[in-house]
Write a structure and sequence with these properties.
4-stranded mixed beta sheet, binds ligand EPZ, single chain, 2 domains, alpha/beta
């Protein structure tokens, strides 16, 4: 298994090109199941999760070709309607094929995704929403067996603004008979990006970015050329890389409006963040201050930036509290940050950080995508050598992270010690 070797203590200085958003590209790839016409997606990041999504599209019957960050999806065979366990267990976002398959075929057989490191992550909101649209749901042999004579538009009130449930239901509604209104819908930029792609395919949608989205079902959808938005979590992660190493980083191809809350708290802490030609420049100009954050649904502080924020707060003198309100078990990185010498106390949903201890390099293990990012950030700040194990977690969501960091002066390399 690959690992990262880092020698910390160097300032990150230079320019990084931000890749397309993983969490926008995934639903957009699955939305191509809604039509047999050719679709082209640009700015698709080259990541393991994208590879799995493409494999799943092919298993379902699509033909897919890829040239760097451009993916072209065309009609292959008739859709098969079954998403197998071996793919779904590797990437839970595979459940997003349910909406398109129900819309196209009136049936879907998708493996239950199971939990993951950060929580149980059930899909009950997705299934309850499908039932409102006339779908019969059975669970057998670890699979969701869903079927309907015809998908009907409905008013669906989500108990929680779930990103995945909103995306799945939007795609189902695209070909349902009549209007669907999703209340308490998620408002994330990735939802808006999917909605824009569906509108480009001919689906009338109102309320994108608000908590009430109205979709008017149509009989067929056309193909589309769609460019995926920049990855706001990669952007935030690199902003923190500049902060934690007292560096000076210019990020190209970003959309700061997608992570306003992160930019605000970083500026409040003292990082200089200025818009420049084609991007943004993040510069450490003075001692940073510890800032309390609580994760929240968009437009609040993203849960996907929580681990990275704790890594930064660990090196800033002073006390602060980070509250995780979205997932029930998203502090696995804290145990690993202890190994660097971080002083953090966990109390239920809160992590209390007494920052300012000098981190020293060590070996640590990534448990999930964003925890892994936090450990890389700690390794960049720590004195001496660090080894980050299980970087396959990072490869799921960060395109060439070590290459981008090395180009900005970090002493980081990927190794694969054969045991
Ligand atoms: C998406 O996951 C993202 N993944 C996650 O990013 C992100 O952390 C999350 O949204 C929150 O922003 C993708 O977009 C591929 P949710 P999703 O449904 O859709 C509970 C990353 O690092 N819930 O908004 O699964 C759930 O357990 C990943 O890129 C139910 O209880 O998130 C969680 O506590 C990690 N029942 C909360 O809601 C449901 O049916 C938010 O989940 C659905 C969700």
């Amino acid at each position: 298994m690959d690992q990262f070797e880092i020698v910390g203590g160097r300032k990150i200085k230079g320019t990084v090109k931000i890749s397309g958003s993983k969490n926008a590209a995934l639903p957009c790839l699955f939305a191509t199941l809604l039509t047999d016409e050719p679709c082209q997606l640009d700015h698709v990041p080259q990541l393991d999760d994208i590879d799995i999504a493409i494999k799943l599209l092919v298993v379902l019957g699509k033909q897919v070709t890829r040239d760097r960050d451009q993916v072209v999806i065309t009609h292959g065979t008739n859709l098969t309607g079954k998403a197998p366990y071996e793919l779904v267990r590797r990437m839970r976002a595979s459940v997003l094929v349910m909406g398109p398959l129900l819309a196209r075929m009136g049936r879907a057989r998708v493996s239950l995704p199971g939990g993951c490191a950060i929580g149980a992550r059930p899909i009950n909101y997705h299934l309850e929403g499908f039932k409102r649209m006339g779908v019969k749901i059975e669970i057998e042999e670890g699979y969701v067996k869903a079927g309907c004579d015809s998908l009907k538009g409905a008013v669906i009130s989500l108990p929680y603004p779930s990103v995945g449930a909103t995306e799945n239901l939007m795609m189902a509604a695209a070909l349902a008979k009549g209007e669907t209104v999703i209340q308490k819908a998620a408002r994330e930029p990735e939802i808006v990006d999917l909605g824009r792609m569906l509108m480009g395919m001919g689906v009338p949608i109102e309320g994108l970015g608000s908590s009430r989205i109205k979709i008017t079902g149509v009989s067929t959808l056309s193909g589309v050329n769609h460019r995926v938005i920049p990855d706001r979590i990669e952007t935030g992660t690199f902003l923190i890389a500049a902060a934690v190493t007292k560096g000076d980083l210019t990020l190209k191809g970003v959309d700061l409006s997608h992570l306003d809350d992160v930019v605000q708290v970083l500026r409040k802490s003292g990082l200089s963040i200025k818009e420049v030609e084609g991007g943004v420049r993040a510069r450490w100009v003075k001692k940073l201050k510890p800032i309390d954050v609580a994760t929240a649904v968009y437009p609040g502080f993203p849960t996907d930036m929580q681990a990275q924020w704790i890594a930064l707060m660990s090196v800033i003198p002073g006390r602060c509290r980070v509250r995780e309100t979205v997932f029930e078990n998203r502090f696995l990185h804290v145990q690993e940050l202890f190994r660097f010498g971080a002083d953090i106390h966990l109390d239920g949903r809160d992590a209390i950080i007494h920052g300012g201890t000098h981190l020293s390099g060590c070996s640590v293990m990534a448990s999930d995508l964003r925890a892994g990012a936090a450990l890389v950030l700690a390794g960049l700040a720590a004195k001496g050598k660090s080894t980050i194990l299980r970087v396959y977690h990072l490869d799921r969501g960060y395109e060439q992270m070590e290459v981008k960091l090395r180009k900005c002066g970090a002493q980081i390399r990927r190794t694969n010690p054969v045991k």
